Amino acid sequence: MRLLDPTTQPDAIDLAAQRLADGGLLALPTETVYGLGARADDDAAVARIFAAKGRPSNHPLIVHVPNVEASYQFASAIPPVARQLMERFWPGPLTVIVPRAEGMAAASAGGQDTIGLRCPDHPVALQLLQAAARLGVAGVAAPSANRFGRISPTRAEHVVEEFNEQGEGLDEVWVLQGGPCEVGIESTIVDCSRGHPVILRPGRLTRVELEAAAGMPMGRSTPEAPDPNAPRASGTLDAHYAPRAKVRLMSDEHLDMALNMVEPELAARPFDGPKPAPRIAVYSRSLWARRSARPGLVFRPMPAEPVQAAHDLFADLRELDALGVDLIWVEAPPEGSAWDGVRDRLTRAAAA
Ligand code: TXA
Ligand code: MG
Fold this sequence. Notes:
binds threonylcarbamoyladenylate, globular, 11 helices
């Protein structure tokens, strides 16, 4: 593993771009989460991503481009609604699915005849994509830089945790430092390839903002109500984004009741006996202020505001997981489209 830091190494971006041009693996920062990148126009390079992540190779990846123009080489057509969304939100946390240019980036697309495109709003990512483009790299395929099914990394240190131990026969991962990710959950994905736009994955951009920019209503594919035409996509699997601990989502009332029930049991049972008491982390917007930690219980406040909650979510889940708790009890986020992204990730974490 090699760490490149543009704040201390003047040639970090150039080395990272060369790494991509050579077909190597490079984890890169974006405003949403860190991605595990390889040049999108090289099927052998892209195969290294699937191997390193342990991800099935028929799951399509998102291709990152430095600007709107660079996306044209991957698309056979840019539907008008896609163009409107790209022009409004790029660079930014939005992926559009469009018909794929024949013979282009087949491995990145997981063999689908569509391709996911995104221009990230992160200064290091944009400099990297521009430098790579000068070396002939058309775009960078990058799924989130975590092992398959696990929590997406929002700091370079998380990527190091995920890929420090390099498995046998796997390519070394280089990591480009870009600081903590501002958004904290993955991009909103809008499928623009099928006539009517469908939100495949919610993110920071809300349905209201997207529909205003598109000038039309959008369909929505959720775990509860999957769009039957939606392609298979790992970010849309029911169980995903999972910590090692078991996650349970509950209303604040149910959470309170569950705590009332478990507290006497925790008090009575030792933590290191033959049948040890479970260790429970409580991640909640309201309860942590009303109750205090006791042996076996850890309280962690969830931010009360959805943008901040998304920003903290994956880093907090990682930290709670690292405490070695058995259970993470989470207060369900409130209704409302501003919470869609956080609710979606927590629902999938709880389904694992
Ligand atoms: O914010 C993000 O989108 C991050 C950063 C690194 O850009 N990337 C990310 O990639 O979340 P990944 O692979 O973890 O999730 C991409 C999702 C997957 O669910 C994938 O199946 C879906 O996008 N996807 C990509 N191309 C697609 C396509 N052609 N059709 C349908 N879904 C697609
Ligand atoms: Mg992912």
